[in-house]
Structure formats: structure tokens, C-alpha cells
Write a structure and sequence with these properties.
It is a multi-pass membrane protein. The chain is mainly alpha-helical. 79% of the residues lie in helices and 0% in strands. It folds into two domains: 23-214 and 221-250, Up-down Bundle (Growth Hormone, Chain: A), CATH 1.20.1250.20; 300-539, Growth Hormone, Chain: A (Up-down Bundle). Mean pLDDT is 82; it is low at 1-17, 199-213, 218-226 and 522-534.
């Protein structure tokens, strides 16, 4: 009976350590994701719809200054810079992650980061009034730095605060808000709202028509002042202001407070507030074990991480997953989507609404990932996601090449686009960032995010730079390259990446230590326990011998 009783007690204890979604944890998750991740997604697609009007502004500004029209090649160069400076800024932002999170904390870094967004929003919102397109390009760099920091710090911050049974679901929330940001930018960028130079007149006329039946003469200057696309670009500062005002009222990452700052009391208070109960001894003890196992290592730099044998396979895994995420063709699918829907009979004027519908599918499927990641696990979603993307790219290549000869191939192309978006939304997009949080301990996590984030943004930049050349040279066969990348990533995940669902950071570290063929320091403690037991047994024998 006693073994069964011990098993029951241990299962009850494990059940007791499971965290729940408290109000405090839910609010800090939503505020962090809305104030930071949302803007990453928003600025990915915010310039797509108003692009022709912004380019007209570039040309008009140049003409006003120099008295001649801008050379077409120069205009193309300026617009390419406007688009590409965002991922390039993201790369620079990723390089700032380690120093900032180690010195200012996770929450502190998010608060500081808001200053980048607010400054860029003001510059972009006033660019038309100031008649300068240079500040738009500068602001795209600044927003890229902001997004580079946000895309790495938010998953790290939330992953360190979440209980192990909710870590996957909470870790997917930032990606959910990225997709929501993309969708909101697509909706606001519609021609009938803010996606053109005259959108401000339409919007203001609707408002005034409802209130007064016409625009009052005293309000005509407002119509002139409130332009469509500058407002669209400037709105990105609002979530930052909200986060700047609300996030200070929530606790810092308990792991940062205990392991890096050595402040157990503050860490305990933060945990108690996040968990909704006072007994957090088990989590504190787990953090202590992690702290003891890493004391000799200290805070790892990127160089140390890249040469440290004990983290070799974790590092390779995040590089492969991040490259697979960005090089799997998601940008190409969105690029081709308009053309695919037009070939299926959708009118050119209505393609923008189809783009919004694709964005909505992206949001719905990422939302689904939040709810299934803890039940199905990370590996299943990664394999299913990359598998769907791989199959979709292969069939899409066939459908695009045959759509001029076989009428129903256009509809098959649409199905492939939708399946691809579903695959990317449930696995390829959200899970890699969750895995970075889970596969590294406190001392190496900032450096790991710097590496993973840098690979993410460099691959994003490379795809944006090279895809047009690929499309011009290979056409629809470009998708075979993406198909191969998805397949290689899927095979790697199947053979190397472990399941991390419902495991502590130390348990995951032990799993990877076996693959790295190293012993982790917590095993020394286990040996000490064995020696203690053996010493106790020897002492008992001596006592029994003396009794005899």
C-alpha cells in the first residue's frame, strides 16, 4: 500500500505545482504582446497598401526641392530602402537584446523600447507636413530596432513568468498579436479607410455627416491636416504609450530577479502575485537549482555560446528552426496571393479584401495554436506546420504552371495558399521562439535570443532582397526551393528536437545534455546524495555491529 500512497502523493504534488491563468498573468501577457508584438506585425504590412501614394509623395517632394522629376531608378532605390530598412533594423535590435535584458531586466527593456516606437511614430506621422521622405526611411530603421528587441524580449519575458504547463500557450500569444497587427494594418490600409492620400477626407466626411450633415467651415483645416497614410504610419505609437503607462504596475521576471539579481524576496513576491497563491517554494527551489548549476558559467556571450559544447545542439536547433521559419516562403506566398486570386476571377479592386481575409485566417489559426500547443506539444505542431508548408509549396508549383491550361487549377492554387497559411500559423511561425525560451537556461538565454533573432531578421532581409530576382528567373518554380527548405527543416526537427511540453527548464537541459554528450552540474548533486545514502548505510552497519 505504501508505494501506491507515495505515488498518489507525488501525483497530487505535481498537480499542485501546475499553474493557472491568473488575472495578473493574463494582463501582463496581453499588455506585453499588444504593446510590443502587435507593432511588429503592424509595421510588416502597414506600407503595402499606401505604397503608390507614398511613392508619389517621394516624387513630389523631390520635384518641389529640385524642380525636376525624380529619376525612376532613384525612386525604386528609395522605396527599396523604405521596405528593407525594417528587417535590417530588426537585425540591429536583436544584437541589443543581451546587453539590455541583462542590465535593465526584461520589463525594463520593454519600457525603454517603447521610446523607439513613439519617436518613430511621431516622425512618420508628421513626415508629409514636414515635406521630407528621409525621415520615413529613418523611422523604418528605428521601428526595425524596436521590432528586433520586441520579437525577442517578449517571448523571453513571458516564457520566464509562465508556469510550465502554460508556457507554450503563453509563448504563442506574442505571435498571435503579430498576426493581429498584420490584420489591423491591412484593414486600416484599405483604400476606403487610410490606405490613400484622400482617405482622410472620406473618413472625416463620414464623421461630420453623422454629426452635422456637412463639414463645418471651421473644421476644414482639420481635413487638410489629417492625411491618410501618415496617420496610418503614426498610429503605431498608440500601443507603446499604453504599454508605457500600464506595464510598470506588473512584476519583473521572477527568474531574472532571483538568478541574475540574487533578490529572492522580490522573486517570491512576483511569483506569488503571478500565481495567485503564497506557496511558491517548489518554483523557487527549481530556480535555485538552475542558479547553482550555472554559477561557474556566469552570463554567456554570443561567442561563448557558439563555442560551448554543452549547448551545441540547442544552438544548431534554433538556427535551423529560425532559418526554416523565414526561408520557407511565407513572404513569397503573400506576394503571389494577389495574382493567384486574380487568376481565379477576383476583380483587381477586390483583391485587397482577399488579402484581409488571408490575414484573418492567419489570426484564427494562430489563435488555435494557443489552445492546442499544450495538448499536442511543440514537436507535433512544428512537424505538422512545416509538413503542410512543404506539401502546399509542391502542389502550388504544379498548379501555377498548369492554371493557364487547366481551368480548375486556379482554385487549387487558392486551396494551397490557405493550407500554407494554416501550416505556418500553427507551427512554423509561433513555435521556434517558444523553443528558444525552453531549450536554454537563464545564463545562456539572452545570447540564444540574440543568435535566433539575428538569424530571423537576416533571413527576412535576404528573402525580401532576393525573392524578386528568384521570381523573375524561376517564376513559379521558386516554390520548389521553399518546399525543399521546409522538408529539410521538418526532417531535422523529427530527428533532433525533443518535446518540451510540461517540462521544467532543468529537465529540458538534462535531455539535451545527453545529446551533447556532456554532464550537467546538477548531476553532481545527485552523486552527493548517493554518497550520503551510502554513508548512512555504512553508519547503520557499524551501529548494528557494535550492538552485536
Amino acid at each position: 500500500m505504501e508505494p501506491n500512497k507515495d505515488k498518489q502523493e507525488s501525483s497530487d504534488s505535481e498537480e499542485g505545482t501546475k499553474g493557472k491563468m491568473t488575472l495578473s498573468l493574463a494582463l501582463v501577457t496581453l499588455i506585453s504582446a499588444f504593446g510590443s508584438s502587435f507593432q511588429y506585425g503592424y509595421n510588416v504590412s502597414v506600407i503595402n497598401s499606401p505604397a503608390p501614394y507614398m511613392q508619389d509623395f517621394y516624387n513630389q517632394t523631390y520635384t518641389d526641392r529640385h524642380g525636376v522629376f525624380m529619376d525612376k531608378n532613384f525612386q525604386t532605390l528609395l522605396w527599396s530602402l523604405t521596405v528593407s530598412m525594417y528587417p535590417l533594423g530588426g537585425f540591429f535590435g536583436s544584437l541589443m537584446v543581451g546587453p539590455l535584458v541583462n542590465n535593465c531586466g526584461r520589463k525594463g527593456t520593454l519600457l525603454i523600447n517603447n521610446l523607439f516606437s513613439i519617436a518613430a511614430a511621431i516622425l512618420m506621422g508628421t513626415s508629409e507636413i514636414a515635406k521630407t521622405f528621409e525621415v520615413i526611411i529613418l523611422s523604418r530603421v528605428i521601428m526595425g530596432i524596436y521590432a528586433g528587441l520586441a520579437s525577442n524580449v517578449v517571448p523571453m519575458f513571458l516564457g520566464e513568468m509562465a508556469p510550465k504547463n502554460l508556457r507554450g500557450a503563453i509563448g504563442v500569444v506574442p505571435q498571435l498579436f503579430i498576426t493581429i497587427g498584420i490584420l489591423i494594418a491591412q484593414i486600416l490600409g484599405l483604400n476606403s479607410i487610410l490606405g490613400n492620400a484622400e482617405g482622410k477626407i472620406l473618413a472625416w466626411e463620414v464623421f461630420c455627416g453623422l454629426c452635422w450633415g456637412k463639414i463645418p467651415p471651421s473644421h476644414h483645416h482639420l481635413v487638410t491636416f489629417v492625411a491618410g497614410w501618415p496617420v496610418l504610419l503614426g498610429l503605431t505609437g498608440i500601443p507603446s504609450v499604453i504599454q508605457l503607462l500600464t506595464l510598470p504596475f506588473f512584476p519583473e521576471s521572477p527568474r531574472y530577479l532571483l538568478i541574475q539579481k540574487g533578490n529572492e524576496e522580490q522573486a517570491r513576491q512576483a511569483l506569488q502575485r503571478l500565481r495567485g497563491w503564497d506557496d511558491v517554494d517548489d518554483e523557487i527551489e527549481e530556480m535555485r537549482l538552475e542558479d547553482q548549476s550555472e554559477k561557474e558559467e556566469g552570463q554567456m556571450s554570443v561567442l561563448t555560446l557558439c563555442t560551448f559544447r554543452g549547448l551545441r545542439w540547442q544552438l544548431i536547433s534554433i538556427v535551423v528552426m529560425m532559418m526554416g521559419q523565414q526561408l520557407s516562403g511565407v513572404n513569397a506566398v503573400f506576394y503571389y496571393a494577389d495574382r493567384i486570386f486574380q487568376s481565379a476571377g477576383v476583380e483587381t479592386n477586390n483583391v485587397q479584401y482577399v488579402t484581409v481575409s488571408i490575414g484573418a485566417i492567419n489570426v484564427v489559426m494562430t489563435c488555435l495554436a494557443v489552445f492546442i500547443v499544450e495538448s499536442l506539444g511543440r514537436r507535433i505542431l512544428l512537424l505538422a506546420g512545416f509538413g503542410l508548408c512543404c506539401g502546399s509549396c509542391a502542389v502550388l508549383t504544379l498548379a501555377l504552371n498548369l492554371q493557364n491550361t487547366v481551368s480548375w487549377m486556379s482554385y487549387l492554387s487558392i486551396v494551397c495558399v490557405i493550407l500554407y497559411i494554416i501550416g505556418h500559423a500553427i507551427g512554423a511561425s509561433p513555435i521556434p521562439f517558444v523553443m528558444i525560451t525552453e531549450m536554454f537556461l537563464q545564463s545562456s538565454r539572452p545570447a540564444a535570443f540574440m543568435v535566433g533573432g539575428s538569424v530571423h531578421w537576416l533571413c527576412n532581409f535576404a528573402v525580401g532582397l532576393l525573392f524578386l530576382y528568384m521570381e523573375a528567373g524561376l517564376g513559379a518554380y521558386s516554390f520548389l526551393i521553399f518546399c525543399a527548405i521546409c522538408l529539410v527543416t521538418m526532417v531535422y526537427i523529427f530527428f533532433v528536437v525533443p518535446e518540451t511540453k510540461n517540462k521544467t527548464f532543468m529537465e529540458i537541459n538534462k535531455i539535451m545534455a545527453k545529446r551533447n554528450k556532456v554532464e550537467i552540474q546538477t548531476e553532481k548533486e545527485e552523486l552527493m546524495d548517493i554518497h550520503t545514502i551510502q554513508a548512512g548505510q555504512a553508519e547503520k552497519k557499524e551501529i548494528s555491529n557494535s550492538d552485536l
